[in-house]
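Backbone-to-sequence.
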């Protein structure tokens, strides 16, 4: 089983998303955070379940996992998986381009 690591940016992303949702609905924020972490946790057993990011420097290693309306970008780095970024599908397209 691979080890799961989070980049500082991914940690910030998760905190930002949770805080944004909590402003309107704290229980939904807890539920979404729990669902995201559970989905990300599955990568330890199924590291290639995300889709390859075609525009990435190495598409076989950088992948996107889709969990509800969220995208989790991660790097397959033996022997671990590094979660790079997390964002909601409605976030600015331009900011997504900067995530590679």
């Amino acid at each position: 089983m691979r080890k799961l690591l989070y980049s500082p940016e991914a940690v910030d992303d998760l905190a930002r998303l949770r805080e944004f949702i909590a402003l309107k609905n704290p229980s939904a924020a807890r539920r979404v955070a729990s669902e995201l972490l559970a989905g990300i946790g599955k990568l330890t057993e199924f590291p290639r379940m995300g889709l390859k990011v075609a525009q990435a420097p190495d598409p076989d290693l950088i992948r996107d996992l889709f969990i509800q309306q969220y995208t989790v970008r991660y790097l397959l780095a033996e022997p671990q998986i590094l979660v790079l970024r997390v964002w909601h599908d409605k976030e600015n397209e331009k900011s997504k381009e900067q995530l590679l």
